[in-house]
Each structure stands twice: as C-alpha cells, then as structure tokens.
Amino acid sequence: MIENTKSQKQTENRLLIIGLDGATFDLIDPWIKEGILPNIQKLLNKGARARLRSTIQPVTAPAWTTMLTGVNQGKHGLYDFVHRREGDYGIEITNASDIHAPNIFSIASHYKKKVIAINIPYTFPPHPVYGIMIGGPFAPAVTPQLTYPVTFYETLMEISPNYFVMPEYDARHPNPLDDYAKTLTSDFDVRLQLCSYLLRHEQWDIFMVVFMAIDEAQHAFWHFHETSTNDDNGAFKHTIRDIYRKADETIGALIDLLDQSPEQRPTNIVLVSDHGGGALHAIINLNQWLAEEKFLYFLSSKKGLLKILFSKFVSNATSAYRQYMPVKLRAYLRNHLKSDDFDFIKGQIETVLYASTVDWRKTQLYALGSGGNLFVNLKGREPMGIVEPGEEYNKIIKKAIHSLKNLQDPENGKSIVRNIYRREELYTGPYLEQAPDLVIEWADYGYWGRGRYDSQAPLFEKSSHMEFTTLPLTGAHRPDGIFIASGPSIKPLDIKSTSITNIAPTLLNLINIPPSSFMDGSPLTNIFKPEAYKQITERINNQEFSLDSYKFTEEEEQIITDHLRALGYL
Length: 570
Hints:
nine-stranded mixed sheet, 570 residues
C-alpha cells in the first residue's frame, strides 16, 4: 500500500461521484432550458460534459462495470445479468463475484484513499475497501451481507431503517402506478438520508452513490411522458420529469452537505449514467427468430397438457403452459386463480421456459439474456453442442449475420439492425471465451432483443404489458449516457462524445492516482485546468482481483429474476 501523509491529504481535492442510472441529455437539455434542473445547470455552466458511449449491449451489468474498471468486457468478464449455468442450458444470475478486474474503489484503497461507495450496481457482494461499501443492485435483500464492513449494517439500520436496494412495483396496490411513482421518489430519500450521515461524520477521498429511479421511471412511464394531452392517465404525464427534478434537488442537497464535512477540502463533482433511455417500440424474441430461420428448434410433444401437469408437476407444467395451453384458457386461469397462486405458477413457468423447450440436439444458435446476444451451440463448449469448431462454426456465423441484416420491422419494413459483431471485433482479454459469439447492435435501441425460450412467443412483442410482467414496460435503453464534471480541477468544455472506458482513468486522475496499465480507457486530460492536471507517469500493474465465488440461493435468484423480467431484460 502507498501511504498518504497528512500534508498531502490537505492539498488533494476530493471527488464526489453521483450516478443517475439511465439519465440522458435528450431529457436533461430541454428541461435545463425550462429551468427545471437548476443544480445540474450550475454544474454544466462551469464544467465539462460529454455524451457517454455505453457498452454493447447498453445494459446495467456490463456498463457500470466497464465504467468503473476502465476495461472492456473481455477483461472484466461480465457481459449480462445472466450467464449459462455450467453443465447445462439453465441460467444463473450474475453478481460482483463474476467480475475479474479491479474497480476504482479497489485501486483507490490500494493507494490508501478513503472510499465510500453506496448502491452501485454490481457491488454485491461488497468487496473489501479502505472505507465503507454498501452493495447495490441486484442485491436480493438488505441484510448484514449488504455492507462492508459487515458491522456497518447496524449503523445503516439506525440511520435508515427503511433502506432498500431496488424500488418494488406492487401490482396489488389499489393504484399501483401511483404507488410505484412514490416509491421511486423514496429511492432518493433513503439514499440521501444515508449520504447525509456519512458526509457529515466520515472522512473520505472518493465518495460515490448511484440512484436507480430515473431508469426505472423511464421503463414504466415513458408512454405517459410522450402523450400530448393530460386527459387519460394525466397524473403520470410528468412522472419522469418529476423524477429528474427530484434527482436535481438531491444533487443540490449533496453539494450543500459538502460544507458540513468534518474535513474541509475542495471537491470535484462528477455526474454519470451508464446508458440513456427512450421509447420501447418492440421486444424481439430472438429465439423465435432463430427458430423461424432454422437455427434453433423447439421440442414438439404429443403428450397432453394434463398428463404433463400430473406426471411432472409444476416444473414440467411450466414449460407446457405457454407451449400447449390456448391463449383463452391462459386468460381464464389468470382471472380465476388467486393472485398468490398465479404469481407462484408464473414464477415457475418463467424459470423453466429458459431452456427446457429447446431441442438442443438440432439447435445451432441460441439467444441468451438481454439486448441481442447470440451463442453458437458449439461442440465441446455447450453440454449438447452440435456445431464443430472451425469451418462449420464460421459457416453458421456468416449465415446468421447475413440473415440478421434482413431483419425488418413488419409494420414499416425498415431495417432494425445497424451491425452484427463477432465477439473478437468488440472484446479482447482473458474472458473473451465467455462472450456471446454474435452481438447485435440495433439501429434504434427502441427495439430490444430478448433471449426467452418460448415456442409460442411472437417474434415482435409490441404490447406495453407483457404476459409475464405486471409492470408496464414502455421505455428502453439508449446507447448514450451522460458525463458531467465540475469543480476546482475542471474547465468548461463540451467534448461531444467519449467512451465509457475513459471514465475510470479520469476519476482516478481526479484523486491523483495514475490509470492502471491494464485499462483500455485513457483519462480525459483536456477537461483539466492546466494548473490542476499533473502528468502521472507511475502505473501499477493489474492486481490479482477476484472475489470468492458467490451463489444466490433459489429464493434470492427468484427475487432478482422477477425484477429483471419486469424490466424486460429476461
């Protein structure tokens, strides 16, 4: 470890990082002109900004991880919320123990910089730092395992006894959307309550907190945001705007709290988001497309539904539900089952639908997870792989690329695919083999690929209310997030666009730490004032970084799966 002397500490600036998951300049800029976001405007007036090009796919898991490690997915190993379970075709929910590169908090701790990290996606289970870490999404519950050190849990409960990780949607509430909007607002309140205590009582060099409410609001309320009148559901027309306004108020409150810190030092402030947001036009069930193109085959069965129900009970019944049961009968069951019973059956159905309906002995390609990721059913890698490595593999890849280029919106005939990448074109590093074989970049990310194994799913789902999610789903991600930096080290500058890999080395430079030699990104040196930026030539090598493997329990995995499904990721 590198020791900092007291005199050095007194001359170094601190760094406050505020994460707004899903925030986009597409909404921020017009609302600044309307005077709705005064605190963000103040930061922009004196600071630097850039559109932040996210990962492909622009989803929470790889995006925040890439931002905070400064390396591509081939080096940190996290590509999605899920991965294929070792030994079969089931899926497992990923977590922080699947990340194999040090983030800025580990590096700052190496340099004896005091760290406070709150609610950052994919910091559960939390790893040891020189300071405090409270794990973020997608932690299943608030327990002592959420905090590092574990003893801080008691303090957390004293400060914020109603603390939660992710806002929950209660479909059984008399007015569920109104209740959900209030819950999203409380996302800022519980986080600010904790930050207020820590900012007033703890010393720190780097402090980061992430708020998830903007992304959640955009997923659920985008259709209200785009309506031209207040007639129908008018109460929700401005919900997204109000959440941004609440975010702005919270930013102002955090900045004001800096003056109450036990240690007064100049502070640089950075606002970031992992991706943007916009309207959801359609969900594309990619395994259905693969089946239509004869890359994937679903199982057929002459067994009756009742025989399956009684002989295999719920596990096999779940795969049969969508495959064999008529839509009208499904609706009848939904309406006549008690809500608790239906929720249980629904969860079981979703779990088994992931893999049990596919004939793997004939399948060449399959989609898995969120966005648009395709995997070859490769012999020697997949449990029942049939595609030979080498020539046959390349033949399947080329055929799929050619077919995907012809994928069109059936309503307007427009091509919806911008590019299809082989994994080697996007990723490098020791975890390249875990990457999808093909990655689809959509022309408009209002189209969202999903890897459900459901033989009855339509290719394009335009409904705003999916059968297996109670949460309205009308908003999706966009590839561009935000980067805003302001403070004593920063000069006003609009650098238009930058890669998400450049953020980690920039943040480290802001606390006088050199970017690590293994990082793919480079610090944004042009945003620094000349007198503030010092060329740092010392570089550390990649530390051995890994957490003990953490496996969710079945109950925990179901909780997280339900949340991911509600947001259209699964």
